[in-house]
Design a protein that fits this description.
By secondary structure, the protein is mainly α. It folds into 2 domains: 117 residues, no CATH class; 131 residues, no CATH class. The strands form 2 sheets. A two-stranded antiparallel sheet has the order 1-2. A hairpin with a 3-residue loop joins β3 and β4. The longest helix has 29 residues. The chain is globular, with a radius of gyration of 19 Å.
């Protein structure tokens, strides 16, 4: 138990330091890291789906599509309006459909469905991180990289997870979604949310020029609610497949999807929240 805790602590500390460092350092380090994570996550998702009987997702093309989508969003957010670069990604989607005519697999519909799901459920949220990271510059056709919004989403997720775990261990009595995740409790979720709102207030003291306090609080609440649903969605997938972890790439923490399950739903909804306001 102590060895496992030490392993989790070392891996988690290194992983958080890597993410924070690459996000803060520069837009290039940000793009390289998350393009790599996006590719690994899609690969992991396809491997999970291919464990089912008669399912054979075209894993290589799905990974290429994920990389293409991320880099296209990266380019489009640096140079707004240059959407023609997405044409290459459209051809990849068409290929995923047409190729099933010639692959002669037992379950082409499942292959197509899971291939498209790898793009919509996994690749797209990572690509949308670029929308959070780049804001329009005044009197310019270009945008400026600002690390605070993408970083804040991950900070809220981490604080919510930690706060929910600690609060749930101390006070958890009522199960949040026992059929999917027996360990999660309402008390833990409320505690994690409270810690997140406190963190949002603290962030607003230093980055009030980005947006006012009430918007920071609203962003934190959005991340907590939809991040929890994202976590439960991945738990549903794993429970359906009869597995504990999505992978083993992170010692003591499982796979990439296990680490970013909350973010897959929190990132798109955070963007919707900010854009509607």
């Amino acid at each position: 138990m102590n060895r496992n805790l030490l392993q989790r602590t070392v891996t988690g500390t290194f992983f958080v330091a890597l993410l924070v460092g690459c996000i803060v350092l520069s837009p290039i380090s940000f793009a390289l890291l998350f393009c790599f994570i996006c590719a690994l996550s899609v690969n992991e998702f396809c491997n999970l789906m291919n464990k089912q009987d008669d399912v054979n997702v075209n894993r290589f093309v799905c990974i290429i599509g994920a990389i293409c989508l991320f880099l296209s969003f990266f380019y489009c957010n640096i140079y707004p309006g240059q959407y023609s670069i997405l044409i290459a990604y459209v051809f990849i989607l068409i290929y995923l459909l047409v190729s099933e005519l010639y692959r002669k697999r037992k379950s082409p519909i499942a292959n197509i469905a899971f291939a498209m799901m790898s793009q919509l459920y996994v690749a797209l949220p990572f690509a949308l991180l670029n929308v959070l990271a780049f804001q329009s510059a005044d009197d310019s056709d270009f945008t400026q990289y600002n690390f605070i919004l993408p970083l804040s989403v991950f900070v809220f997720i981490w604080i919510n997870d930690t706060g929910a775990y600690c609060t749930g261990m101390l006070f958890g009595r009522h199960r949040l979604f026992e059929r999917i995740s027996p360990k999660k409790s309402w008390e833990g979720s409320i505690g994690g949310c409270a810690f997140c709102l406190l963190a949002a207030w603290g962030i607003s003291l230093f980055f009030g020029d980005v947006m006012p306090t009430w918007k920071w609080l609203g962003l934190a609440l959005t991340v907590v609610i939809f991040g929890t649903w994202g976590d439960l969605t991945e738990s549903l997938i794993k429970r359906t497949l009869g597995i504990k972890d999505s992978g083993n790439i992170l010692p003591g923490h499982g796979g990439m999807l296990d680490r970013f399950d909350s973010a897959l739903m929190a990132i798109p909804t955070a963007i919707l929240y900010l854009y509607f306001l």
